[in-house]
Amino acid sequence: MGQFAEGWKIRIPAGHAVYSVRFRHNGRRIEKSTGQSDSQLAAAEAAKIYSALVSGRQTARAVSKDLSTAVAEFLADFELVNSARWAEIVTLYFRVHLLPFFGSFASFTKSSYADYGRERLQKASRPTVRKELCALRRFVAWCAEHGIDLPQVQPLPKHGHPGTRHRYARKRTATILHPAEAKRILMAMPERSIRSGDWVRPLFAVLWETGLRGTTVLKLETPLHYKKGASSLFISREIDKEGFERTVPLSPEARRALDRVCPSEPGKLFGAARGSLRTYLEMALVKAGMSDRKISVYDFKHSRISLGANSGAPLAGIAHLVGHKHVSTTALYVTTGEAAAAEALNVMARRGRAIRGTIRGTLEEDHQSAKEKS
Prior knowledge:
The chain is 52% helix and 8% strand. The protein has helices at 39-55, 67-81, 84-102, 110-121, 126-145, 179-187, 201-210, 214-218, 252-261, 276-287, 298-310, 315-322, 327-333, 338-373; strands at 2-3, 9-11, 20-25, 28-33, 221-222, 232-235, 246-249, 267-268. The strands form 3 sheets. It has a 4-stranded antiparallel beta sheet. Strands 5-8 form a two-stranded antiparallel sheet. Strands 6-7 form a two-stranded antiparallel sheet. A hairpin with a 2-residue loop joins strand 3 and strand 4 (28-33).
């Protein structure tokens, strides 16, 4: 980070390629992108930004007339005030879909916005297209703040053509696995991949036992998140989708799986790529004779939550384990049905018998005590 006498500093935020300027003004910490990857140009731009804000004038930086460059500047600013996950998604929208379609500022017209929506609905679902247009709307608003007026992006109507779901899109209804079925799948998996040497069965054992997201488990490192023999797992803000930093207790099975893969030197616990999880699961389903069940990696999380909730476990505790900040989010994962209703009756029956036993024992003690006194 470069520091200058004027009172501002420039730095490249983690994972970024463009310098930002940071300073304090009127008791607030301010950080803005300079739009420059060269330190000298960034310093010159930082001085303009600092001077403009301190003096009350608007920022002197003008948006590039080249669409690709302007989008890069927008994304640099976007990353400073949004979560890393959302910034990553918006960057993907622009790089893969929006930039190739529009190409230049001249294509930003109301008719082209409508054309984009119609074209994308043939390849993506309606909620996805709405998110892409939302990102485009944010860019248009950002351009307006910097002196470039573009036609407003009209939102895609909520109802209409449902769009086209990707072949690997998340299923509308989860497949709930019972513990015996999960064990059958795990036993059909190899301990390690023959081709890459990555841990396979321990990885899925941790997914099943914890109900954590696959992206979170793949980012686990030692000793930061887990130390061999520990009874809990530390989930740092950087590896959780919601930025929910917490410590979660582990089941004995999860501890055994983590101890088996925990390296002696600092590093990642699992080296598998995110895309390989689906491949490993599909191979195990074929071997276990369950390929007709249409089971996905995400069903492990859904199943763990549903089984826990339907067995009487506190929903607040399940939410903490799986990484939901709000219990209402966890409730959406709970699958109801006849089996869940039967389990609820069994739980209530067991509790009723326990209460009746306690009352009966208390009455017998009182009766015995009364006999002794008489």
